[in-house]
What does this fold into?
Amino acid sequence: MGVVLFAVALAVAAWAGLGVVLLLADPVPGRDTIGRVELLCLTVLYGLGVMTLLSFAVGVLTDVNTRAPVTAMCALVGATGVWRRRELLRASLRSGPLGVGALASAIAIGATSAVVWWFARHQPLGWDGTVIWEFKAQMAFDNGGRIPPEYYRDPTRLWSHPSYPPFMPLTEAWVYGWWRGPHQQHIKVLFPVFFVVAAGMLHAGCARLGGARRWAAALAPVLLLSVPMVVFGEGGASSGYVDFPLAACFLAAVVHTLHHARTGSAQSLRFAGTLAALLPWMKQEGLVLFGTVVLMLLVATIARRPSAVQWRPIGRAAAWAVVPGVVVLGTWRLYLRHIDAELRDEYLPFTFDTLRTNADRTSTIAGSLWDELQMWDRWSVLWPMMLLATVLWVVRTRGVARVLLPAMVVLPIALDSFVYFFSGWDPVSRHIDASLPRLLLQVAPVAVLVIALTAPRFARPVAVTERAELDETLHL
Amino acid sequence: MLFVGYRTVLRQADATTQGRTGRAATTDNWLASLQVLDPSATIEAVLAADVPVDQAIFVIGPDDDPQLTITHFTISTLAWPRQVGLIRCRTGEATDITVPTSDVVGAALVWDRTRVSEPDAPGRAIGPHLRLITGTEATQWVSFCSP
It folds into this structure.
């Protein structure tokens, strides 16, 4: 019965996600039509995003149990999207042949997800998974689907990071609501769902960006599974942490940012901007990933029109890239301020003086990063392979995408490392040891995408470039 | 990449053992040192029976025990909505105190896994290593650092 109720909880959220995806997509089916796998992945990501945002809003604005009104709103959003874009939905469901390639992809995604599910089933929730996320989920469940404001003002629970955004607690509380009770073991069934999303987005990203052979698109999820840190351990897809869901969402945003850079697709711009908006809603560190996506979208837009800069498309890109994220993040920050939340600042002031004072941390930070990248037990040979793939990518690819894709891996790592200069932890090495592996995990699926896109006869740079040039000519 | 990664994954799968299961699988795992059956449910029940929700509690334990932090956090997750302070003890003295801002601290959970509670010790024993001591505003909670 629990499995059925879990499926219902996920399906209600996903229905809302389907509506949002269809409303964001181009209304007329065409070359950009979203395929089945990608539709499924985006539906889950947007569904959980919308459901948690609605839960938060209903919880703040009313005193009622949030489950019934949120269910009604999810149903309405989904029905609106499906009704208004029913032709598009039909086209998406019919897209691509159901041949050997599709079967191989389905087997790859299913088999790799089963391994993650096995680990999730056999290991307890990790540290953050319990004391930061599941604890809040239990509170929300006990309090009608909302985290009580008193919690945010409780100075004895600062260790549970009250300022962290409530995406994961509200997702877990949503499932608990359907189950009619919390369950620390059963809730682990939720986390392999994000692995399915990441594996599916890798497949869809390869097909969308690489002009790939189907066998090669099927290989990408298998590569993802070969990164031990992804599969198990603190922060991994089976641990109950939010880092891997964040990584899955970032991967989806990167795929659409890159697609927008190559083709100028307005649809991909809308997807990239709104997916980026979910990143800081999932976790504080999502702000760095959000900033990376925004920057890359702006770079892509400007780079597509080097001769005569047109302000209108740049303005449109900036609006789609920045506004959704700022609205989401701003609302959360305003709420914390409104309820007078007790916040623990783990960072020193972000000033030049702090940077100068902590300049001696350079060797510690660089050394820790270097050591971490070589941790084969955690990463296998992901990072050396990523380096090799980056070289191939840069040599083979033309246009702004040449810089864009590697930058989506390197820039977040650089920014996250830079932030350690402002860490309030003493010694800073403790902070690095506790967080660096998970920060790298957030970009690991994108690193796998780089490798998959440069697999032999995988990327077809000439054809892609030609297509981009054709699009440019046609102002698509 | 596949070979190196999958070998590690397989090794980990071999090393994985099923811990406690059930509604409170993780918190029960972390409270295993209490040596109590269903520790999470037991602590919830004891607090519900003996400490009003508008009163705070202290967790009191030995500073040099690396399990103290996880025990404090876990009890804190179970004690909501009560505020949960912490008194770290060393050689009978309090070395660090996190004080709840609530008006009243109504009880303390005194934990020491190296010592078995004696029958005549104050408060109510919850298993061999944990005692619940109720008190008032006048109670000197730091005095429970002394054996």
Summary: Residues 26-145 of chain B form one domain. The interface with chain A takes residues 1-2, 4-6, 8-9, 12-13, 16-27, 29-30, 56, 73-74, 76-77, 80-81, 83-86, 98, 100-101 of chain B (CB under 8 Å).
